[in-house]
Input
Amino acid sequence: METNRLLFLKLVNELSFKQLNTIPDGYNNNIIWNIGHIITVQQALIYKSSGLDICLSEEVFNNYKPGSFPNKNISKENIMDLKLKLTSIIQLTKADYNTKMFSNFKPFKTNVGFNLSTIDAAFKFNNYHEAMHYGIVKSLAKLV
Output
């Protein structure tokens, strides 16, 4: 996850406010929405599924959860917050994993059919999910 997040951060740091918020023709989201989305999904997959509180406000969670779409430009302040969360949440997650905070993980099947029976399976699926969105973000970056 850490490597994924550093790749996202490098890409985001190379783009302007306008580029991050642009939704190209034929797409239904933008680069910064994808950043918020991977953060939100990681929190749901790892923390919520373990019965733990997430590190996001309800508003942020709802703005980026699966099935959501950007409905306005994300402010520069919120972009900075998402950029910070890209890496800081991963550091917290690593510490929580090492202290066995996820011992109450509840197995479930994802909406795309993956059976996540353990916390380690959830981490692997999260990496798959983030890699998929990294590809989307790279494609979007070429269009903006």
